[in-house]
Write a structure and sequence with these properties.
The complex is a heterodimer of chains A (237) and B (136). Chain A has 237 residues and is an alpha/beta fold. Chain A is 38% helix and 24% strand. Chain A has 7 helices and 12 strands. The chains are: A alpha/beta (237), B alpha+beta (136).
């Protein structure tokens, strides 16, 4: 298991959810890989790249093939691909291990003089941490709704944004992902790049930099680690 | 998993600073704390037959002192700061809370311990090469 890598330039994308009826990644991501190649960067798919939880296997294969083919070319051109496992792709972890990329639960990146933790972040979601089976059941039930109408994702995203705002506004507890980031900063990390929440974010916390790479459900976003700095960008091409 | 347990973990762990060359722990001393390097570096060494043998240097994010914490045995080597060094200090209770809060820490510990065991096995194999001794 590879848990650490020294990389000057790394593009991090989260939550492609290839296979999910609500994801646009199947349409845009292969072209985005050309952009990553132009950036002269390696790539990390930071969890939930493929989605078996909210799709069928035929849908997953159909949505994934263009990306997998382009990923192969990307790797054959000398780039490295890391894949940190999330909660929607855990069931196909063994399949991922057979692809020509480094599959890992998280990645500690040294870039410049900075130490950066890249991980999906689902374990920092309080409900998932306490009740992973219930969380998965909820995800499966939601998949039926998504198949019936993919636009219901937008409703879910709005609901999540409200829940997220309420969590951040509580005076008695800290936002769980900030709490997790602080714990990592205490262990000598300068920055974290999470995913999972689908909310792209770059916030300077008192002890380090917090970045969420966002998702590829309606538009695409990515984090770029370059010489120790971490930027957040939207994919607009 | 987060929230209160995170603050408890902070309350139960502390940060200590050491100057260049300062001893952090000494071989044979009692102590049930482990250390995670926040900044700076640490040299691990052992006195053998009157000579000081450097066993290795550790950098940011790496840990040491876990053997005494896990086994309640005296320190097995000296540890000194390389440059100004800041360490997160964990006792048994704080370690358990931290692992509960951040399970990836446990995986990193296992990963580093596995790498150390592998290096020791390699050294042992080299040391035993040509010797009549066998390892069970």
């Amino acid at each position: 298991m590879i848990l650490a890598a020294s990389l000057e330039r790394l593009v991090v994308v989260s939550d492609l959810h290839l296979g999910s009826p609500a994801s646009v990644a199947w349409r845009h991501f292969p072209a985005f890989l050309d952009h990553v190649h132009e950036l002269d960067a390696d790539l990390c798919i930071n969890g939930d790249g493929f989605d078996l939880l909210q799709s069928t296997f035929p849908a997953l294969v159909a949505a994934s093939l263009p990306t997998v083919r382009r990923l192969k070319q990307f790797i054959e051109a000398g780039r490295h691909v890391y894949y940190t496992v999330g909660n929607h792709d855990l069931a196909i972890e063994h399949l991922l291990l057979d692809l020509p990329m480094t599959v890992t639960p998280f990645l500690n990146v040294t870039s410049g003089t900075a130490r950066i933790r890249v991980e999906h972040g689902h374990l920092h979601e309080p409900f998932y941490a306490r009740h992973p089976q219930l969380y998965e059941l909820g995800g499966r039930l939601a998949s039926g709704v998504l198949v019936a109408n993919a636009d219901t994702y937008k409703l879910w995203a709005q609901l999540q944004a409200v829940v997220d705002r309420r969590r951040r506004g509580r005076p008695t507890t800290r936002y769980p992902h900030y709490e997790a980031a602080s714990s990592l900063f205490e262990r000598g990390f300068d920055a974290v790049v999470f995913g999972h929440t689908h909310h792209p974010e770059r916030t300077v916390l008192p002890d380090g930099l917090f970045v969420n790479a966002g998702d590829w459900m309606t538009t695409g976003s990515y984090a770029l680690i370059d010489g120790g700095d971490v930027g957040l960008h939207a994919w607009t091409r | 998993m987060t929230g209160m347990s995170g603050r408890l973990a902070k309350a139960l762990s502390d940060v200590r600073e050491f100057a260049d060359g300062e001893y952090i722990v000494r071989d044979g001393a009692l102590g049930e704390e482990m250390f995670v390097i926040q900044s700076g570096g640490v040299r691990i060494s052992k006195r053998m037959d009157g000579k000081v043998v450097d066993l290795g240097d550790l950098g940011r994010g790496q840990f040491f002192g876990e053997m005494s914490l896990l086994e309640s045995l005296p320190r097995d080597a000296d540890a000194r700061a390389i440059g100004p060094t800041k360490l997160l200090v964990l006792g048994p209770g704080a370690l358990l809370l931290r692992i509960r809060q951040d399970p990836s820490f446990a995986l990193e510990m296992l990963h580093q311990l596995s790498a150390r065991t592998r290096r020791l096995n390699d050294r042992l194999a080299v040391a035993l090469e040509g010797s009549s001794l066998e390892v069970e």
